[in-house]
Amino acid sequence: MGSNWRRNLGNVRSFIGNSMGGLRGGSNLASWAVACTLAYFLWVKPARELRKEQEERAALAASSDPYRYVEKRKPIPDPQKTGLIYGKGRQTERSEG
Predict the structure, then answer these.
(1) Cβ neighbours of residue 81 under 8 Å, at least 6 residues apart?
(2) Region labeled Disordered — which residues (predicted)?
(3) 39-85 pLDDT tens trace
(4) Is 86 a residue whose pLDDT tops 80?
(5) What is Dmax (Cα atoms) for the chain?
(6) Distance (Å, rounded) from C-alpha 88 to C-alpha 74?
(7) Would you state the pLDDT for residue 30?
(8) DSSP notation for the chain
(9) Domain boundaries defined on the chain
(10) Residues 6+ apart with CB under 8 A from 24
(11) Could you tell me how far CA 31 lies from the centroid of its own chain?
(12) So what's the pLDDT on residue 52?
C-alpha cells in the first residue's frame, strides 16, 4: 500500500507526457516554443493590432465631430423593487392582528 501513491504519480506523469505529444526533454520544450510563437504571431498580435486600430479610429471620429452628443452623466438606477421602469412596485401583504 506504500507504493500506491508512487503508481498514481507515475500514471499522472505519463498522462501529462502523452497529452503533450509524447515528447520529452529539449524537443518538448522546443516544440512548445514554436507553437507558442506561431500562436502569438497568428492570433494574439493581429487581434491587438486590430483593437488598437479601432481605438484610433474611434478617437479620430470623436475628435472630428465637435457637435456630437456625449453622455456625461451616469443613468439613475430604477428605485422600484421589481426593477421595472413602469408599473407599481412589489407590494407585500400585511396581516392585521
Answers:
(1) 89, 90
(2) 70-97
(3) 999 999 999 999 999 999 988 887 777 777 777 777 676 666 655 55
(4) no
(5) 82
(6) 24
(7) 86
(8) -TTHHHHHHHHHHHHHHHHTTS--THHHHHHHHHHHHHHIIIIIHHHHHHHHHHHHHHHHHHHH-TT-----SPPPPP-SSS--SSSPPP-------
(9) 26-63
(10) 17
(11) 27
(12) 95
Residue with cell 475628435: 63
Dihedral angle computed from the Cα positions of residues 14, 15, 17 and 19, in that order, rounded to the nearest 10 degrees: 160
Contact 82, 89 (CB under 8 A): yes
Instruction: Evaluate whether 12 touches 5 at the Cβ level (below 8 Å).
Output: no
